[in-house]
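Cross-check.
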Amino acid sequence: MLDFNELLPIGTVVLLNDAVKKLMIYGVGQTDETNGVDYDYIGVMYPEGNMGEGSQFLFNHSDIQEIFFRGYENEERALFLEKLQKIYEENNL
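Predicted model, tokenized:
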């Protein structure tokens, strides 16, 4: 997992390495339920959004080639990141 302070906010629109289509981040700190692997983000195609099963993509910060738009950030998000970091530390994740 990336340093929590570097995590991009939900709503951020990115292009992944070697990709053609942009993704919009809608979740951070995600785990792939099929294999237990942790990822920094989950996203959906932009501008289409969630189009059902198979249209959601797990990826890490290092997979991002370009950031087109940065999502909304405020105090509430900062508190969320603090809580998320604490949970990861307490559970040795």
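The mean pLDDT is 92. The radius of gyration is 13 Å. Passed to J.P. for a second look.
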